[in-house]
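Hey, quick one: can you model this chain's 3D structure?
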Amino acid sequence: MNEKLKFSVFWYYWLMSVISVVMIISICMIIMPNLTIKGFSLLIYLQSNTIESSFSSNAVKYIELTHAVLGAVMFGWSILLLLILVGPFRKGNLESWYYMTISIVAWFVSDTLFSLSKGFWQNAILNSFLFILLIMPLLAVRKEFIRN
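Sure thing. Here's the predicted structure for all 148 residues.
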């Protein structure tokens, strides 16, 4: 850690852990599409087989594709967040704090508002949980970045 930056190592590793879990989930969305379908079906419909039993096989394949693409985008975003975290963020670069925070807020607001507008409040709750896990450490260390 930067000698000038005295923020808690706890929050640094908290962020690293949450981002790493998002990366793992993202990879699972790509390589385990059946598990992803069951997981989202359980989240949205409270039954793990609703998507597979309610849609045609072509529609299910398309849903698998969209989940895999979403997983790939999330994986890329997670890698970028992790690179910012272990590089400029760790060195106390104020802009890196803004980059991470703005990226996370932009994801949360856009994804959550769309989910709510389409009636998928369950995804909004999932988003809120992840948002809290990501934003909490950023808010906790903000003063340290401003002081530098």
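One thing worth noting: Residues 57-89 form the longest helix (33 residues).
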